[in-house]
Amino acid sequence: MPLPRKVTFTLLSLALMVTAPDLIPALKDYHVFDWASVAKVAEFEPRVRSANPVEEEQQRLKPVISVEKTPVRPLVDPKGALEPLYAALFATERKEAGAITRILHYGDSPTTADLITADVRSLFQKDFGDAGHGFALVAKPWAWYAHRGLEIKGSGWKIEPANTAELKDGLYGLGAVSFRGGAGAQSRIVLKDPTHSEVEVSFLSQPGGGSFGVFADENPLEIVETESPVVTPSFKKLKLPGGAREVRIANVTGKVRLYGLRFGKDAAGVEYNSLGVNGAYISILARMVDEQHWAEQLQHHRPNLVIINYGTNESVYAKFVDTAFERELLRTIGRVKKAVPQAAILIMSPMDRGQKMEDGSIGTVPALSRLVAIEQRVAAEQGCAFFNTFEAMGGPGTMGRWYQTEPRLVGADFIHPMPNGARIVGNLLYKSLQEGYRRHKLRIAQEKFATIKGSNPTPAN
Fold it and tell me: Is residue 262 domain-resident?
């Protein structure tokens, strides 16, 4: 008796999904089934009972790497590129009035879910104070877009990331994503932390611009007009009522173009902004965002540190790595220096990216090491700090080891870390920054001591 048509179609579709990665090279990173395991199952032999079953099982599970015991990997910063960051942290730690340390972290897909960045934010704010969540996009450009501490929902928007936008004018705001909307467009952001004191909406003022309303817990804050004789980025900062847990964008009239909302507090502390774009590569900052527009965004946010964290997506395109990556990285660094010369720049290498090798093992994509070497050299030549994430997390083959760990630290694509894996990377970065800051404070203390000693010479006998 033949199977029903729907069942047959479902089985055929499943078979196609399972076999496609083995037949189509472009899908090689999306394996869901390992055919080699079939032979292993067929050759199964009962395991000989161990004399030490507890120790054997502990070895098999390979317990999660201890974040607390991971070694500190000093940042490569021979020219003191991070001094602006450390000076800001010093003022923040002393709780000086208005002392907010602002960090912008640009990255690719892991940062779209606030992975790694959320852990670094949490560590900074625990040690130096919480100045607020910082910037988040108006709505979700991707289903997995998330920010720890926020619940983001939106509808009715024409969403355009800079790397896939239909309207290629380069005007994509701080987070490189634009949201165009009319009547019916709305967004809702729920705050888990009700102690935020202000929200700032970033948008585009333009000829023929409409208006939108901003609400806090259903209470209207202001109707914002976007009409302007010239096209220019604009920002509207509004006070939040005490205990506010929800901010909404609604009552849109005409046509508006929004970018994001920044949540802040009236307190000294750190504001760590996670600015990830799915599928992003270095050219998104080098060419896809308009230079003047992006410069105005950077200048408004006044960062003490800009982190440039790309390379994962580029690493599987060897020709791009060898012929274009350095040029695009230099162009990006030049843009940041020109826009905010007072800010420190940290080039953060990508994590390991794994791939299945011919022998069935999980190795590292060949061009990744070359890309990391380019980043380190360019950082040194341009007076930027460098953090070698790839080596800090374990070097070649790390994603293979992380995938075999239970619980796993990376997904089946050998690219995207699981929360525990992201926590390890975030901790490695933070510990290195903390070590650099500790050295900075030690140097200040030594200089102060030397000055005091020099002003009080030892009396002659």
Answer: yes
Task: Report helix, strand or coil for 213.
Answer: strand
Nearest to 282 by CA among 327, 345, 344, 338: 327
Encode pLDDT of 166-177 as tens digits: 899 999 999 999
pLDDT at position 83: 97
Domain range enclosing 230? 132-266
**Residue 445 located in a structural domain:** yes
How, if at all, do strands 100-107 and 269-276 pair?
parallel
Same domain, 276 and 402: yes
Neighbour count for residue 405 (Cβ, 10 Å)? 18
Tell whether omega for the bond before 407 is within 30 degrees of 0, i.e. cis: yes
Buried b (16+ CB within 10 A) or exposed e, 195-227: ebeebbbbbbbbeebbebbbbbeeeebeebbbe
Domain boundary among 228, 251, 266: 266
Distance CA 282, CA 273 (A): 18
Element (H, E) at 379: helix 368-381
**Domain end marker among 221, 243, 266:** 266
pTM of the model: 0.85
Query: What percent of the chain clears pLDDT 90, i.e. is strictly above it?
Result: 78
Nearest-angstrom CA–CA distance, 424 and 323 = 32
Bridge partners (DSSP) of residue 263 are: 134, 199
State the Cα–Cα distance between residues 275 and 307, nearest whole angstrom. 10
| Cα–chain center distance at 179 | 20
Total of domains in the chain: 2
Q: What is the pLDDT of residues 124-176, one digit of tens each?
A: 999 999 999 999 999 999 999 999 999 999 999 999 999 998 899 999 999 99
pLDDT digits (tens, 9 = 90+) for 289-348: 999 999 999 999 999 999 999 999 999 999 999 999 999 999 999 999 999 999 999 999
Identify whether 38 is part of a domain: no
**DSSP code for 46:** P
Residues 114 and 136 in one domain: no
